[in-house]
Amino acid sequence: MDRAELTTGQVLKRDIPWEAYMTTKLISGTDLQLLRRYDNRAESVRAQLLDDDGPVYVQVFVRILRDIFKEETVEYVLALIDEMLTANPKRARLFHDNSLANEDTYEPFLS
């Protein structure tokens, strides 16, 4: 299948080596814990995590997009964000949270 034809669901079926990224210090141990809590969970579980700690998850996603360049991983995180915003467009405000004031949350999307 052509990569341009992949759906969000197909991308999210990938197995991303989060542990390997932590071993190589591309993500932190905290990032790994958050990803394990969020990744491959039911929408209701993800929704609760985002309601409780949404800005923290946005920060992890943005950091991955900024620091990891492997195409499959970038597509995966973009699919997570797409799914998050599709389920509830009001979650876009998570990218504007005061706790992210020192982060350029848009930079990874523009490069």
Automatic annotation (TrEMBL):
Molecular function per GO: proton-transporting ATPase activity, rotational mechanism
Give the top-rank taxon of the lineage listed in the UniProt record for this protein: Eukaryota
| Pfam families hit by this protein | V-ATPase_H_N
Its GO CC terms?
vacuolar proton-transporting V-type ATPase, V1 domain
Task: State the name under which the record lists this protein.
Answer: V-type proton ATPase subunit H
Q: Which organism is it from?
A: Hibiscus syriacus (Rose of Sharon)
